[in-house]
Amino acid sequence: MQKSFWYMALFIGILLCGFIYLGSIITKLSGEKGKTTEVATGVTPEGGESIFWGKGQCHTCHSIGSTGSGIRGPNLGDVAARAVSRAEERNAAGASGMTATGYLIESIAQPNNYVVKGFKAEMPYVYKAPIALSADEVKAVIAYLQTQGSEFDIAQIVLPPEIADTGKGGDEGAVAEWKPYVEGDAAVGESLFFDLKGDIACAKCHTVNGVGAKVGPDLSTVAATRSAEYIIESILEPSVVIASGFEPVKVKTKKGKIITGILKEDNDEHVLVMNSAGEVTEIPKGDVKKLKQLKMSVMPPFGNVIKMEDFHNLLAYLLTLK
Ligand code: HEC
Ligand code: HEC
Asked: Residue 219 C-alpha to ligand 2 middle, in angstroms?
């Protein structure tokens, strides 16, 4: 009796040690695969929800129903329901056999293949820098979108190679983050940005963390959604992509007056136009003879104004705005 008790205890002891050992191997294994396995547990609508409102930055442009304040992109409440007709449209345009989830995947993989009416091709490649979601994080976000008007179905979420190959770790398939070739000094860049007596003086038009003017977009988190390449282009050639809500226009009134600036409002009552000094002119709708969209941004190109060294300092500063 006593002997068999000790045998039993020994047996349980060995079993326990075995489990602990196995457990430690398993944790090591998944630990070694690194960052991607950590989020693998989050390939659920809940995991996607936290990415949507956090790391994915989706909320800076999109709202979900009445939650959120993003307006640069379409409201994504019910997006899975309307994805059915969007997929039909894409199939009619030559995509073959696209499903509703297929449309959601394409919206993220190749956001410019279909640009929602009333919006611009401003949706970033969220699996590239600076947002740089891993393949599993993209899957989770799509799972979350599926629940907006339809049901979570992981079997439908098959990512195309351009996303599936990201976040594997190492160099293979990973999208490298852009690195400036000259190290700038962000502190010097910050003073150039805010020095209103200098040639650069971006704060004449832009706000960062509550300081500055509001002619152009608030840049407090510009590096969180915009790539370094986009920011560089914005400074050197601002008219290539004009941020939505800041479209330049020329208004001719019936009395022959011409007002140019950013179109702030255009409704049945009036047209509001803001000039580069931030002054707003209100033109009663009845007085408007012609309203024309311009191709040249209100932001001047800085290519000829800014010295190379200043440019790199300024860029270093802008890239800290996350
Ligand atoms: C910088 C702004 C911005 C960010 C950040 C952004 N989007 Fe978008 N998104 C847009 C714009 C603008 C459109 C509409 C133009 C288009 O269809 O490409 C759009 C379109 C979409 C659509 C298609 C909607 C429809 O009605 O067909 C989906 C889905 C979507 N985005 C998901 C996301 C998700 C998920 C994220 C985060 C991982 C995200 N977006 C981040 C701006 C953004
Ligand atoms: C005269 C006003 C004015 C000045 C000065 C100005 N900007 Fe702009 N900026 C704008 C306007 C208006 C837009 C939006 C239209 C567009 O995209 O071109 C804009 C857009 C941008 C964008 C793109 C933001 C986005 O989310 O798409 C960046 C980045 C930017 N400016 C950086 C700068 C920097 C850096 C400086 C200083 C070197 C500067 N701007 C000086 C008016 C100005």
From this structure: 9
